[in-house]
């Protein structure tokens, strides 16, 4: 992925529009600077709010939809025809600077013209009209689609991919691969046949055919809402209530103090406590641990960070205990943290066994490098679709757009700028911005606020679509095309909320 980080901005000529209004006061760094190259010259110059939020058309649309569809999680009825770049439009003519981006899932802006071209090709039409059952009837161009897209972006040391439908599905199938791998080793290798006892007991959901194995996850983790992934999700009770769960262990994720550079010693001690707990669980838990799964930054659980040393320690523990190491990059992957994959910050001596992805990739699955992680027989890791070639084609176009415009570099530099400005703002409003975190991690930034929910609501009236996570964290999840002039607008609107 090094080539992605070196690419220059050369896809579209710089727009000759006046620069967006810089953030007020001494915090502004853009004042007097040369106009910035803009990825979307036709974006609004600033948010537009001309009705109450939600407005009358939005309210009417919600009322109509609620008659036939569950709308309890609805955030904003969206006019996707009018949405552009970093701006999301509602039905009442309002345009919001979107720093939530469909729960961290839009990579290169609404109505990106390059993606429009990609979906207008005969290749895309064939994939959509004749959607293949990929495990049995892959298209003639499937190998090329993978090699020029998903595998081109593969994390270092992982040269194979299993495609899936969503982030939960990616993690769920990674768990299955871990269990099959573990039992294959215990059985004596891939060529050893299943016993009659295994086959019969599996049909009764009993051991040894259905073994008592487990996946270790961390407190406050979020890995999805399917049955296996839900058993590793620990972020909020509402996700899990009333759903049967597997008897799987959890370890404490390090509870660090911020700013990290001011608490190095005590944070290191906290991380060591967590690592010791992980190893103890692996050695003692009554259902043997087949794999450990971890997010580079716990996202839904509150944007919780740990140091590269912590993750290096996890990798060492899993290696010496013959346990697989799964890194969940569903939310952190594809450039959001200023590197293409967040685990690149860790400088691991050996790569993770599997890396799962979705969201900004607009497709899903997991990468791996060990051939033994393939099942030994057909139909064991299988479903009808096994992903969607149309989405893999779209990812290839996203990758090309990232590479052409140096968007990983853009996210790193914009994130550094935004973090410094927020750091100054937190000193001015220490009650509103607490435990600011995400320094040096692109635009993957969050802070705690005692009145978080009120801030999220007020932000819309100020023309900004923000997100929350955990119990009281405000999180920023802008797109890779989010730039310094957008950051200035965001900071200006935030200060008015405080």
From TrEMBL:
Necessary cofactors: pyridoxal 5'-phosphate
Molecular function via GO: 4-aminobutyrate:2-oxoglutarate transaminase activity; pyridoxal phosphate binding
InterPro entries in alphabetical order: 4NH2But_aminotransferase_euk (IPR004631), Aminotrans_3 (IPR005814), PyrdxlP-dep_Trfase (IPR015424), PyrdxlP-dep_Trfase_major (IPR015421), PyrdxlP-dep_Trfase_small (IPR015422)
GO CC term (a single one): cytosol
Taxonomy, superkingdom: Eukaryota
Catalytically driven reaction(s): 4-aminobutanoate + 2-oxoglutarate = succinate semialdehyde + L-glutamate
Region annotated Disordered, chain positions: 25-45
Enzyme's top EC category: transferase
E.C. no: 2.6.1.19
GO biological process: gamma-aminobutyric acid catabolic process
Keyword vocabulary terms for this entry: Aminotransferase, Pyridoxal phosphate, Transferase
Family membership: Belongs to the class-III pyridoxal-phosphate-dependent aminotransferase family.
Protein name: 4-aminobutyrate aminotransferase
Organism: Elaphomyces granulatus
């Amino acid at each position: 992925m090094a080539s992605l980080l070196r690419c220059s901005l050369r896809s579209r000529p710089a727009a000759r529009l006046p620069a967006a209004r810089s953030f007020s006061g001494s915090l502004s760094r853009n004042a007097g600077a040369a106009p910035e190259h803009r990825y979307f010259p036709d974006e609004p110059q600033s948010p537009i709010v001309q009705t109450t939020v939600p407005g009358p058309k939005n309210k009417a649309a919600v009322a109509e939809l609620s008659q036939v569809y569950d709308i309890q999680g609805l955030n904003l009825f969206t006019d996707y025809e009018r949405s552009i770049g970093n701006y999301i439009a509602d039905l009442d003519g309002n345009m919001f600077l979107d720093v939530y981006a469909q729960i961290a899932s839009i990579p290169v802006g609404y109505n990106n013209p390059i993606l429009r071209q990609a979906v207008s090709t005969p290749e895309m039409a064939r994939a959509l009209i004749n959607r293949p059952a990929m495990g049995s009837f892959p298209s003639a161009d499937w190998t090329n689609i993978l090699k020029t897209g998903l595998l081109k972006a593969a994390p270092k040391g992982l040269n194979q991919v299993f495609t899936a439908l969503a982030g939960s599905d990616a993690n769920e199938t990674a768990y299955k691969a871990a269990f099959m791998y573990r039992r294959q080793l215990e059985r004596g290798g891939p060529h050893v046949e299943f016993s009659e006892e295994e086959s019969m007991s599996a049909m009764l959901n009993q051991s040894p055919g259905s073994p008592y194995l487990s996946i270790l996850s961390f407190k406050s983790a979020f890995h999805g809402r399917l049955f296996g992934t839900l058993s590793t999700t620990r972020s909020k009770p509402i996700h899990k209530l009333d759903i049967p769960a597997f008897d799987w262990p959890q370890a404490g994720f390090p509870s660090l103090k911020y700013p990290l550079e001011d608490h190095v010693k005590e944070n290191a001690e906290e991380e060591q406590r967590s690592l010791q707990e992980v190893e103890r669980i692996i050695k003692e838990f009554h259902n043997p641990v087949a794999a450990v799964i971890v997010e580079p930054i716990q996202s839904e659980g509150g944007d919780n960070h740990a140091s590269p040393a912590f993750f290096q320690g996890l990798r060492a523990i899993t290696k010496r205990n013959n346990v697989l190491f799964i890194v969940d990059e569903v939310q952190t992957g594809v450039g959001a943290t200023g590197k293409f994959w967040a685990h690149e910050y860790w400088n691991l001596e050996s790569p993770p066994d599997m890396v799962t992805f979705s969201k900004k990739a607009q497709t899903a699955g997991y990468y791996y490098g060990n051939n033994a992680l393939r099942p030994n027989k057909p139909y064991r890791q299988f479903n009808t679709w096994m992903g969607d070639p149309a989405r893999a084609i779209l990812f290839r176009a996203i990758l090309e757009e990232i590479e052409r415009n140096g968007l990983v570099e853009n996210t790193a530099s914009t994130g550094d700028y935004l973090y410094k400005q927020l750091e100054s703002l937190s000193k001015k409003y220490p009650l509103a911005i607490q435990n600011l975190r995400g320094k040096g991690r692109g635009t993957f930034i969050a802070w705690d606020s005692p009145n978080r929910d009120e801030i999220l609501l007020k932000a819309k009236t100020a023309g900004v679509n923000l997100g929350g996570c955990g119990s009281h964290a405000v999180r920023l999840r802008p797109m890779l095309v989010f730039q310094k002039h957008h950051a200035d607008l965001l900071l200006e609107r935030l200060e008015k909320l405080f």
